[in-house]
Amino acid sequence: MNLKIAVLQGDGIGPEISAQGVDVMTAVCEKFGHKVAYEYAICGADAIDKVGDPFPEKTYEICKHSDAVLFSAVGDPKFDNNPTAKVRPEQGLLTMRKKLGLYANIRPIQTFKCLIHKSPLRSELVENADFICIRELTGGMYFGKKYQDNDKAYDTNEYSRMEIERILKVGFEYAMRRRKHLTVVDKANVLATSRLWRQIAQEMAPQYPEVKTDYMYVDNASMRMITEPAFFDVMVTENTFGDILTDEGSCISGSMGLLPSASEGESTPVFEPVHGSWPQAKGLNIANPLAQILSVAMLFEYFNLNEEGKLIRKAVYASLDANVRTPEIQVEGGERFGTKEVGAWIVNYIKKA
Fold first, then answer.
1. Hey, which of 83, 85, 114, 137 would disulfide with 105, CB 3.0 to 4.6 Å?
2. Is 219 a catalytic residue?
3. What's the pLDDT at 115?
4. Could you confirm whether 247 is annotated as catalytic?
5. SS3 for 290?
6. Structural domain that includes position 31
7. 147 catalytic, yes or no?
8. Considering its fold, how many domains does the chain have in total?
């Protein structure tokens, strides 16, 4: 297979983890006889500094004409600490999602046996956790009408039937491929948009009679994720709720550096780790590249190259079992490995497999 991949390294630790993802992808393609070509493009704070736009038109064109995008992270403290900034790195991420029509964000949340102790939750709670959170990505407050002055501000939360139906369809179809259990997360006791979500979900549920469909308020869901994460199979929710819940999910696995994601929709899919740019760690060779590498596995699986994805996952599990880990998940007294060393170990494992 021939693959054309747009690589958006972004800000902070982005370039460091991106390099490991590219190396792993290259090694897998060589192993399985695929041809891969990379085209690099700027985004985020890096793009603002260079051209004044966090998602320049040239970057969009490169993404649009690629088979997939391998994305890393955006964000910089100089924008975080300036509430009056008119242009922000995160606006580039939102623009990319909107222009590419990426309405479905797929975030698997799982545990690794050798890292159960790294979760702040008790081991008996998290050891069987394995679920997917499907977040609607191009609607809601993040994209609604906004206003801000010195005395008043608002963000409009708006959803159409079409937007809700298409993301619920993704949720039901993922549930059909898994354990046939879908949880629709909303706030229907307060929000009109949530009531429409629940109404449409109830209309669609009979089309999937094999799927057990239940409904949960977001506050209850956030508690249930902590107290009984193994309850969930597939969770589907709106943009803002999904953003918060998926970050909460990182405490189940023990590190945000372990969580990959895919964003799918009308155009080129994007594969990225769920963590941020962690600018404080930039250049220190301590960032965990596993979420980026597991995002590469999801990329291959998107194209039904399942053996390729399986090999990457096997290599990641092997690295963890061998204690080849970055500092935040290393066992006490274990050998120190950096971003580059973990990536190189996994590449070497793939080549020898």
1. 137
2. yes
3. 82
4. yes
5. helix
6. 1-102+266-353
7. no
8. 2
